[in-house]
Amino acid sequence: MQPFFDLLFGFVTFIRNFLFLSSIFVPSQPFFFYLKMNITIDPHSGFCFGVVYAIEIAERELKLEKPLYCLGDIVHNNMEVNRLRDEGLIIIEHKDLKNLKDSKVLIRAHGEPPETYQIAVKNNLHLIDASCPIVLKLQNDIQYGFHEMKKKNGQIVIFGKEGHAEVNGLKGQTHDTAIVITHLTEIEKIDFFRPIRLYSQTTMSIEEFLTIVELLKERLNQVNPTGVSDFEWDDSICRQVSNRSGLLQEFSAKYQVIIFVSGEKSSNGMFLYQVCKNVNPKTFLVSTREEIRCEWFSEVNEVGVCGATSTPMWLMQEVAQEIRKFSN
Ligand code: SF4
Q: Distance between CA 150 and CA 156 in Å, rounded?
């Protein structure tokens, strides 16, 4: 019997030692090696002046009187929206506006179509208009273009995202008759035998806009090779966004890893993230500090943090603080 117990004891000891050693040499987590990191926040990132203006107005009004309603998210960044909600801002949708009476309503930087102002008069709403001045100018230009086109049986074309708040405001200047194109393939919606006025949502890519202009010229030459076509375009893209792409390209090239902070609803955020990713494939998109992944910083010592025109500086600082936890 003794040899059997010796054998059993030996087997149990072997299994116990094996399990112990494997827990040391085969860790369940992959091993990351952290260096001392320099973390730089891009000084050109953060709110554009249109968003700063809208938020300043909201904060000022909230100090004076509550409740203050805001038609749609004041900025495409949930973290900033939640901060202002905590201060008393109430976000409502367009369908709610019809039932709201005798209240104060903030119009955000994207602007609104004329219908919103008509509802406000009818419902005795006090509008606090924080539309960005650049968007207001574009609305006026489109309204003028629309009246001009009406006389000539022409068309207003907007390069932008169908359903985007700014585009809704722009379309509203044309009684919703403007043709919206987001992709090159959609130029087929245009009638090339009628006059055309082309505008752009303020946050679109200049390169794509110019490609569309060239494409339209080509098509017009095809349908009317001998005549002069009535086609004008207005590069209405906001330089607060387009100038950032060049600055972000330079910034992204300087660091091993780029953390781009933006809400996913932000149109310019997704565009600028792609700008960084094209220059530096190690660019990661986060909307909060909780989304930071430790594996991005293994053996990295230069990290850049940047963001969209709708990203608050305090959020980029929070993200940088989180990354510091992986610095040796
Ligand atoms: S991106 Fe330009 S147009 Fe849009 S809100 Fe900012 S400043 Fe105004």
A: 10
